[in-house]
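Can't paste images in this forum, so I'm doing it all in text. The chain is below; anyone willing to post the predicted C-alpha cells underneath?
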Amino acid sequence: MVVRQPRYSKEEFAQRGDEIYETQVRPQVEAGNHGKIVAIDLETGDFEVDSSEIAACDRLEARHPDAQIWIVRIGSRYVRRFGGRGKRTA
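Text version of the structure:
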C-alpha cells in the first residue's frame, strides 16, 4: 500500500481543488453528469468522472500513483451529506 504524504496545507488543498474544478474541469463535465463524482489530481489537473468515488479515484491513481486527489460531486456543494432532512409541515 502506498502512503501518500500531503504536499499542501488543508486550506491550500481546498483552494487549489476548487480553482482547478471551476476553471478547467467543470466546463468539460457539467453537462449530462449531474450527481456524479469527479476525482481531480491537484498536481496535473487530470481527472476522472464516475458515479463511484472509489472507481474514479482508482482510475486516476492508476495513471498517477502519487496523485493528490480532490473530489467534487457535479452540481452540488457537497460530496456527501450527513443527517436527514426534516419534514416540512404546512
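Strands lie at 37-41, 47-50, 69-73. The chain has a mean pLDDT of 88.
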